[in-house]
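for ur thesis appendix - ATP-dependent DNA helicase DinG. copy paste whatever u need, i formatted it the way the template wanted (i think)
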Amino acid sequence: MVRDAEKQLIRECIDALREGIPGFKSRRPQMEMIAAVANTLSRCRAEDEQAGNGDHLAIVEAGTGTGKSFGALVPALVMAKSRHKRLVVSSSTVALQHQYAEKDAPTLQRLLPLQFSFAVAKGRRRYACTVKLQAEGKQAGQRGLDLAGASTAAAADEAPRRVAVLRDLLVSFDGGRWNGDRDELPIPVVDELWDRITTDRQGCSGSKCPEFSRCPFQAARQRVKEADLVIANHDLVLSAIDMEGASVLPAAQETIYVFDEAHSLAAKAVEHFSARHAIRGAVEWLEGACNAVRDAVLGLRLDEQLIRDSRASSERIERALRELHRCIHGTNGFEEKRARRFKAGPLPAWCQGAGEQILDAGEGLQKTFASLREHVLERAASAGTLATQILSVLGFYVVRLDNLVDTWQLMLAEQPDDVAPIARWIERHDGGGRPGDYLVCASPISGSDKLRKLLWNRASGAVVMSATLTSCGTFDLFLRQSGLGCFERPTFLQVDSPFDFRSQARLVVPAMRAEPTAAEQHTHEVGARLPALVDTLGTLVLFTSARQMRDVYALLPEDLRRITLVQGSMPKGEMLARHRAAVDRLDRSVLFGLSTFAEGVDLPGDYCTHVVIVKLPFSVPDSPLEEARREWVESRGGSPFIEITVPEAAVRLKQGIGRLLRTIHDRGRVTILDRRIVTKRWGGLLMRGMPDFEVVIERSRGLERADSRRTMSFRFHQLVKER
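the 3d part is after this line
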């Protein structure tokens, strides 16, 4: 339970925010959230304590305007300090991470009667390697970054500019005006050049490096190690739990986590724990790997048995890859589709045999690289820059080798009947300058098992929060996907919104003649209706298909096309800036966007007074991963449409609608140009949990006005479609 001293400190923190922030109001919903978070974290676990029933976990749905950042941070800071835990706040977007680092944390640090330090955690490749920076800076003038002798004048002209950039960076770093952080660069640096002066874990010699005391990453790592509050992102947290002990983040057992935008955590986990590799591409880099081993051994005068071992393993892998490519090329699985998925159960013999050879030889090559790395590190102090350069080159190949081995470990893994399977497939890959190549792909269909074992079971405590954790009115989808459904007693809270939805917004379903299933007719009808739907200032039109978005744009009258900004025609940031500038001039402006505009886009006030949903955001289940998910549900007697398709569409619809109201002063409307939401029985499911707008259902002979969203959700399936 929460101790009296902790309660008192939380009250003092809230009072400090009232006094220090003009207009700050501690509303009842936020107070409920603070109490729920504090109570949950009072049950945070000791490092050697089992996860138990999940009473150390809180699941909070809190929308825009509820003050969820402070609602979680204030009690979490108090409880973490009191219980001697580290606090890690994680977000899914760079924008939100910057908000925590540049606004929320400094504000709390300045105002709260609670002393705490904070630091931003980033991956190693966000920092310059001082050894590589010095080497590049000194050599740039002589070799012109390999561009001075280029065959084209443009490439040759680029060389002096890059030389100047490198020298400026070196002078800025040596002079203390730059700390080596890419996000704080004093001058623009292109990706290709940055890759020359940064490194990863495999290419770093750590404490053996002659520049260790000046290393930007090590300095940042020390700040993170000393901080009470660490601001991170979901990808970094997933990497940390996957390589416990080797991460910049504290161990999960000593950490209280706050996950903002937690609705994206499960999808990121699936991506993180998946693997893929190109077949012909692997054959090509294997030759480079052998050459790198040879150069390292000869350059440092190491045991030449390492060269022979690496060559033997590489040749075994190469033979198996070529045989795999030959077998794939001779099958019929790619004539009509770009991918061939292997259903649950054993792989075909030709794939199984090649995979076993690749995995066995790949693990042998990993051991050779590990041994070589140890020898190089032993020579790091005396070899200096040469050792760092060797580690950097070896690291390039180690990453690719690890990915190759990871892929085949997943492909060949045993799959118990009672566990969500691994999706396995091979797809054509004509990119990378290698036409006729294939990708071998493997991915868990769900990240729930990994999250449960590596995160929730280990964490001292955790708060997961987002505006869209529920779907169709329940937490069921999120619980299944996140692994939190395995626990009996987590804390659940849905924070009431401060918005008066009924008076602030209206949801309109026009009497569309065409449904999206009739694609061409629906597109033409959308194009015909849009001119009348564009508001006086800011309108956001959300599409699920880039093709339909372009086709609708082509159908618009010229005057409307002139004020419409289409995703893909320019960077997203520039689109939003132009849109805001137009509205500031009191001009009309229309945004055409896809899924990335339905989430994380903040357009308060007149910047968005109308959101148009062109089509209900159902995913197209044509990817091998989606096919495997559907197959798994069906094998257990379930309905993929009801268990996956509808709930996921409900979340995306909720996110899109959420672009409308961003403050208590906003007003506007949502229009859904997809009649299925009123003609299909599942339409009511989509609307459960949506904001309680006034709802207007247009009929061909007039209007049908539903009293509220709740009334609408139960009446939809009874409505008769009229033409």
